[in-house]
Structures are given as C-alpha cells and as structure tokens.
Amino acid sequence: MPQQPTLRRTPLDADERARSEANFAPLVAEHLTTSGRFRISADTPELVELFQAVARRVGEMLHRPVISYANGRYMVITFADQTPALTGEETHPARQ
After folding, report:
1. Is the whole-model pTM more than 0.70?
2. CB neighbour list of residue 25: distance below 8 Å, 6 or more residues apart
3. 86, CA 20 to 30 Å: which among 21, 31, 41, 96?
4. pLDDT per residue over 54-71, tens digit each?
C-alpha cells in the first residue's frame, strides 16, 4: 500500500496575511456580537499569530476590549469580560 504524502503547509506571504486579517475580522466580529465568542482550530504558531491580529482588529472595529486564548489546538476570541472554554467542553445551560 502506498504511503500518504506528508502534509506541508505553505506559509502565508505578507499580502495573503493582510487579506486574511481583513477578511476574517468582519466574520469574527459578527460571531462575537451574536454569540459572544469565536472558536477556531489554530494548531500552528502562524495561525495563532494571524488570529491574534484578527482579534486586535476586531477590538478596534467594535470599540471593545477583545482577548484571545490558545491551547495549541484551538483558539478562542471573546470579549475581555467573558471567560472562554478551551477544554472542548461547551457550556450547556442544563449543566450549569
């Protein structure tokens, strides 16, 4: 059986990174205003840096303090007065 090729990610160039920040910011802002948080798989330092920049941009857009947390697998962006869940356990009203 042939081996699967190893996944190799190509780093974003400066233009791609700038466009990514600009395009993700409205999406993240919409999620924050509707649900209070945005969670994404961010398993590389490059993705964490990208979404930290997106979080800063969203905070500026919404004129509210925004924070981000990463655990090496996921990243959560939320308003500074809320606590994100990184454990994979979602808060469910029946469990509170």
Report:
1. yes
2. 54, 57, 58, 61
3. 21
4. 999 999 999 999 999 999
